[in-house]
Amino acid sequence: LKKTHSSITPLTIPRIRSAYSSQKIQKGISSATSIRREILADGMTGRVADALPGAVFDLLSEAFARGMGPVDHHAMEDLILGILRRSSREEIAAWMDVEEGLENRIKEFAHKAAGLDDFLSQVKTRRYVLTRLQRILVHGLLNLTKQAFREMNSETGPAYLRILAFSEKAAPLLKRLGMTARVPVLTKAAHVNKLDDKVRRMFAYDCLATDLYGLATGSQELRQGDRDYTQSVSIL
Fold it and tell me: CA 116 → CA 74, 81, 110, 111, 221, distances in Å?
C-alpha cells in the first residue's frame, strides 16, 4: 500500500470467542481446527452447520457427497510409510528440510511404527517439531530434494502464474496480466509445453501433487492421473 501510495487504510480485526488452535467447536465463530476435527470425526453435523456460513456448508456437503473429501494425512499413511520404508537413508537425507542425521531417526521409526500418528509421535522432538516433520513427509511424497529446490529457486524463482478460476468480469484484467506479467501466465496446463525445461520441471511438481492428492479421495474421477491437463479453468 505504501509503495503504490494507496488511499486504502488497513484495518486489523481482532480474533474473538475462539482461539486459533481451539479444539472445541461452538455455535457461531469456531476455530478451523475444531471444524476440521468435527467433520473428520462425525461428518457434516449440525454443529458444523452452526459454525459455517450457509453457502460454505452447502458447497462442502456437495463436494463430500461427490467423494472429493474430507481428506487428511491418514488417507495417505500407507503410501507415506511405504515410501519411507522403501527409501534409503541417503535418499531421505536428500529431501528438503532433512538435516543433521534426521534421516536415521526417520528410517528407524518408519519400520517400527504401525501408522502415521505413531511414526510422528516417535520421531518428534523439541528440535524436530510436528509441523516440520509433516512438511518433510510431503517433500518425500513429491521426492523434492534440497538440490532440486535450490536449482529451481536460484535459477528461476517462481517461473509462472497459474490461473485456476476467474470471473467473467475479470476477463479484461486477465488479458492485461498476460501482457504485463514478468512470468508466463498459464490458463491451460498444455501451455507449459511451449516453455523451457526449467519451467516444465517446476510445473511437474504441481501435477504430481494433484495426482497424489487425488489418490486420497473417494472420487473415481479425481483419482485419475494427469487431471491438471484435463480440468479446465473455472469461470465464475
Answer: 7, 7, 9, 11, 26
Return the SS3 of 38.
helix
Backbone phi, psi, residue 161, to 5°? -110, 130
What tens digit of pLDDT does each residue of 71-99 get? 988 899 999 999 999 999 999 999 999 99
pTM over 0.85: no
Q: At 146, give phi and psi (nearest 5°).
A: -60, -40
- The verdict on whether omega for the bond into residue 70 sits within 30 degrees of 0, i.e. cis, is yes
Bridge partners, 185 (sequence order): 161
- DSSP H helices in the chain: 32-42, 46-51, 54-65, 77-86, 89-94, 102-112, 116-123, 130-142, 146-155, 171-180, 197-215, 227-230
Can you tell me which residue has the cell 455455535?
Answer: 27
Q: Which residues does residue 235 pair with via DSSP β-bridges, in sequence order?
A: 166
Residue keyed to cell 484435463: 230
Mean pLDDT of 28-54: 92
Which range (12-26, 102-116, 222-236) has the least confidence?
A: 12-26
Residue 184 near residue 195 (C-beta atoms within 8 A): yes
Give first-to-last CA distance, the chain, whole Å. 28
Residue 165 host element (H or E): strand 165-166
Query: Which of 219, 223, 221, 228 lies closest to 79 in space, CA to CA?
Result: 223
